[in-house]
Amino acid sequence: MKFIHAGDLHLGNPFGGLSITPSWLKEKLHSATQVAVHRLVDDAIVAAVDFVVLAGDSFNTTTPDARAQLDLVNELQRLADAKIHVYIIFGNHDYVNNWQRLPTFPDNVTLFPAEVTTQQLQTANHETVAISGFSYTQRHISTNQVAQFPMKDRSVDWHIGLYHGALGEAGVGDYAPFSLQALQQKHYDYWALGHIHVRETLQKQPFIGYSGSIQGLDKTETGPKGYYMVESHSQQLVPTFTPVAPITWVTEKVQTDRDLHMVVQQVREQFVLKEEFELIALQIETDQTTVLSAITNQQLLAQFVAAAQPSDMFFIYDVTGQPKQKIAGLPAVADQYWSATVANVFNLEQLQKLGLKQVTDGDVLDYFLDASTLTDLKSAVQTQLQVSQIGDEDHVD
After folding, report:
1. In terms of Cα–Cα distance, which of 23, 40, 6 is closest to 315?
2. Cis peptide bond N-terminal to 206, omega within 30
3. Which pTM was predicted?
4. Tell me: the pLDDT tens digits for 316-347?
């Protein structure tokens, strides 16, 4: 028996965290998730899987746009043409508040309702499979959904649980909180989980875990993204991760002693042979004060963006710097003093005192209320202090 476990496609969700996006990159980003789904379907057809399970949040919203709906329906139709069944639950992002507004799915697709239900199928090898699951009909579920799942059906060869939620305590969490013990007590052969965008194994055998998102959509979703190909081996269902995301968020570190005019060329030459497209957060270690200053004031990032070409297999969206050595031009700021002070300086209360409470522009407020903004400010100030410690004869304003 063979099937695909995937989830959190988030079709229709734009990429986040990119302050500058060249026109040639926009369509690549816009189509990335669809490309990942297309690759998954290609693999399913070539491998002749028995079925595919999608563990929630196939769409990013409960009212997806026409393109997102059409993309998914077309891919599901390809699976239908290959006689591959698909089992779908809806999660907290694409919860169903009106079943009549859903797109018309092909006949091979089974949608699970709000109540926990169990579907059965027979594979090409005449193995019987039971799949139990439920869908969200509201954004938040705090009740114990696991209690509604039946115990393993001993009359079938395999019993699979399809669940969108997070570890937690019933009545406390917002996303169908569950305990590992509660899932274990059902004695299923496999729990296909969705909601967490990072691949995570809660139990190796019988497997309980998340396949993660199929395409990273912001800088927190780093590394390869894809799905699990699950095959039966010696009375167990064994998942193997398969990456399909056409775009990967990565962090790259570069050491250089080049001056400001040569750094861009050096870095671009280092990344020229990449095979899959990468969005790169670049960390540069250098003793060149002009380079460190250009990093702090975003000048170097602007140069990387200007040098980017449509033929590139990478795009540098963020640049941070770290001095290679510290030559005491000013007394060094000891790490313990920096750590003790930073929490008292870079917080919302201080921003309010500095004038944030006078701001009425919603976008500006959202920017400064974002936790990542404070992190970026801390990093920029620390780098500037380190530049001053090195000595800054050639400082770039």
Report:
1. 23
2. yes
3. 0.80
4. 999 999 887 654 444 555 665 656 666 666 66
